[in-house]
Design brief:
It is a single chain. By secondary structure, this protein is α/β, with parallel strands linked by helices. It is built from eleven helices and 23 strands. Strands 1, 2, 3, 4, 5, 21, 22 and 23 form an eight-stranded mixed beta sheet that branches.
């Protein structure tokens, strides 16, 4: 079995370890040491660089110019490669509201890449059904005409299409029927649903309804603040329940558009780095330069925005302005639709907010791994774990990516 060593790097596990060597055999980390090791088959000299765990983005919708809802496995492969090249070695791929045919085709495409990872492509931890069982009052960028109450007919069809790789499902816990659905998934999650993670998102729940949902089995908050009731001095909602309950993993979009840094820092200060997972909720434009996506866009001076090419199944044009994707630009219904960054950009943002690299990395690696139930496999540089390691310079620019024990060629 081939061996690889990364030498002379300043190691963050995500806890700061200091200068040392990481040894890899096959797809597994075997040693972390400050001592000199025997020669290996391949050596990467990380002098002047940081060695960090591969990042885990718990909710993405695309990358590299491809959207997650095309139903094409080759597009999912492109998404996986685009994120891996930017140091994001594990992904949960989001599914927006759409027709059941579109959703199931997309789940099937994701499952194909989960089962047969593409060369130089990030690990796919599974799919994330985000908007299908949300609230019409908080649909955001989700297509309202496809949103339905949680029901087992559609869920079981999605579960079958995903071949058991459906990792996260988001539900609005607004009423007794929704709570019954949540309780069922929680009760039979280990036995029948591969420990599916139940999230609360696109919800207009009151504080008490949200807490009831958490008691029923919700452990995760879909893109905290966005698509979520609350932040009122008298009428408490789902947001306050996320703040109040220590057992809830709070996703935080860190593009500085979806959530102002003031409120991002407030969430982290309140819940701690063990309770917040950094995400991008990014669109197909993640991993593309401005020159790449602008060549297929039309600049509209009156909106100071770029209108993107329309797709046949998209009801409203997409725009990029102010560093994010928007819908209905220039209309009263103008709203955010997604980020255009990768998670490494988000980690840089959080460090710029004043957090240590240890804390930022923890929220982008170990914390999400724990919520997703994969921290025994990934999420930190530790002996026995999967060899997903990234070498970055002091500005967190990616220099090398080691994925499943192999250097990514790109």
């Amino acid at each position: 079995m081939e061996t690889l060593t990364i030498t002379n790097g300043n190691i963050y596990t995500p806890t700061h370890y200091g200068y040392g060597t990481v040894a890899i055999q096959g797809e597994t980390i075997t040693t972390i040491t400050k001592e000199q090791l025997p020669p290996s088959d391949e050596v990467i000299d990380a002098s002047g660089c940081l060695v960090i765990p591969g990042l885990i983005d718990g909710l993405i919708h695309g990358g590299g110019g491809c959207d997650s809802m095309t139903g094409k496995a080759e597009d999912i492969g492109t998404i996986a490669r685009a994120h891996a090249a930017n140091g994001v070695t594990s992904l949960v791929v989001g599914i927006s509201s759409g027709s059941m045919g579109q959703i199931n085709a997309s789940l099937d495409a994701i499952a194909q890449v989960v089962d047969q990872p593409v060369k130089d492509g990030a690990r796919l931890l599974g799919s994330y059904v985000e908007g299908k069982f949300g609230s019409l009052a908080k649909n955001g960028a989700q297509n309202a005409k496809y949103i339905t109450p949680p029901n087992f007919e559609e869920f079981h069809a999605m579960w079958a299409a995903s071949d058991g790789t459906l990792k996260v499902i988001s539900v609005a816990p607004e009423n007794d029927d929704n709570l019954k659905f949540i309780k069922h998934l929680a009760e039979y999650g280990e036995e029948a649903y591969n420990n599916i993670v139940i999230a609360m998102g696109h919800t207009n729940a009151t504080y008490q309804q949200a807490m009831d949902g958490i008691d029923a089995g919700i452990t995760r908050a879909t893109h905290t603040y966005n698509g979520m009731s609350g932040m009122h001095h008298r009428d408490l909602g789902a947001l306050e329940a996320v703040f109040d309950h220590p057992g809830i993993h709070a996703e935080l979009i860190v593009d500085e558009h979806h959530v102002h840094p003031f409120w991002g820092k407030y969430l982290i200060q309140h819940k701690g780095v063990s309770g917040v997972g950094l995400i991008t909720d990014c669109t197909e434009h993640a991993g593309l330069t401005e020159e790449m996506w602008q060549k297929d866009a039309v600049y509209e001076e009156e909106h100071d925005a770029f209108r993107l090419n329309e797709m046949a199944d998209i009801d409203t044009p997409k725009y990029i302005k102010d560093g994010a994707m928007w819908l209905d630009v220039g209309k009263p219904t103008e709203r955010l639709a997604g980020a255009i960054i990768t998670l490494m950009d988000g980690v840089r943002n959080v460090v710029r907010w004043g957090y240590t690299l240890e804390d930022a990395l923890t929220m982008a690696t170990l914390t999400p791994a724990r919520n997703l139930g994969v921290d025994d496999m990934i999420g930190s540089i530790a002996t026995g774990k999967g060899a997903d390691v990234v070498i970055v310079d002091e500005n967190l620019s990616v220099q090398n990516v080691i994925l499943r024990g192999k250097a990514v060629e790109s």
